[in-house]
Amino acid sequence: MQKLLSAVLFLSLSLQINAQCNDINTAFKAGEVVNYHAYYNWGFIWLNAGQVSFKVEDTKVNNKPAYHLKAHGATYSSYDILFKVRDTFETIVDTLHLEPYEFKRITNEGSYHADYLYQFDRDNRQINASIKKEKEVQRDTILQWKDCSFDLLTMVYKARNIDYSQYQENEKIPINMVVDGEIHDIYIRYLGKETIKNRDGRYFNCLKFSPLLVEGTIFKSGEDMTVWVTDDANRIPIIVEAKILIGSVKAVFVDAFNTRHPMSAEVNKK
Questions:
Q1: What pLDDT, on a 0 to 100 scale, did the predictor assign at position 185?
Q2: How far apart are CA 129 and CA 172, in angstroms?
Q3: Are 174 and 17 in contact (CB under 8 A)?
Q4: Which residue among 121, 159, 173, 236 is least enclosed by CB atoms within 10 Å?
């Protein structure tokens, strides 16, 4: 957890977090689908071991419009012998500021299984969390819902709406995220701009950043993940690369449908 050295620094970080919390979504819309290939590094070889998809659907909560965010990742059956993954994330958020109503996660990673449910109580500003992990008793807990705290999937879509132009290269952007039934004060480190080549030979102008990871079943803690998102109004991740407990993984952009804006970040290079 990042320690604040002075009240002035604390205030400045709080103002930045609040600004991000109140950001209005302009990056995506209902109907968007983004697909990725998942690669696993085995020695010097990157193996195309699975696929990941993100979807945004319309829904309603108390007769108010909302988004149903969905993400699913799975290894191909031929690679399940190495490390079988079947992960599903779902979150329902409001359409304006993307504040969550409910988060669900079903995790199947190797022999490990876990179910997560976070219900965000807006009236009492608390999070009712229920967590059931392999070979453990179900844990039910109530968390005080700190301002601008989000679940993992919501944070993926919130990060697409951050105005990176106000940050200098190597500057940290503070965020609050609910992980494993606890609220963590972490950050995204902005790393500037870069033009990258995708595995299919396409080039994209990107914004680059590295989020601070919270240790879990696959990831180590620290800045061992790097993300490149399109430097356009969509902010679609093109490559996400991370070290895991054994080797490295990489999600590589394949295609996107029903984006809110044209993908103007793609450039032609000969």
A1: 83
A2: 28
A3: yes
A4: 121
The whole-angstrom distance between residue 46's C-alpha and the CA centroid of its chain comes to: 23
Which pLDDT score is estimated for 224? 64
Q: Which residues contact 28 (CB under 8 A, 6 or more apart)?
A: 56, 157, 160, 234, 259, 260
Separation of alpha carbons 237 and 235, rounded Å: 6
pLDDT in tens, 70-124: 999 999 998 888 778 899 999 999 998 899 999 999 989 888 899 999 999 999 9
The encoded tokens of residue 267 equal: 């450039």
- Say which DSSP state 9 is in: H
Query: Is residue 163 helix, strand or coil?
Result: coil
- Is 263:235 a contact under the CB 8 Å cutoff? no
Q: Tell me how crowded residue 97 is: count the other CB atoms within 10 A of its CB.
A: 15
Break the chain into its structural domains and give their ranges: 7-267
Q: What is the CA angle 171-181-177, rounded to 5?
A: 20
Nearest to 229 by CA among 170, 167, 166, 162: 162
**pTM for the whole structure:** 0.86
Compute the distance between CA of residue 27 and CA of residue 234 in angstroms, rounded to an integer.
5
48 pLDDT more than 50: yes
- Can you read off the two tokens belonging to residue 157? 């879509």
Which residue in 153, 116, 150 sits closest to 131, CA to CA?
116
Amino acid (1-letter code) at residue 49? A
Query: What tokens appear for 208 in the block?
Result: 């680059």
Where in 198-261 does DSSP place strands (E)? 203-211, 225-230, 237-243, 248-257
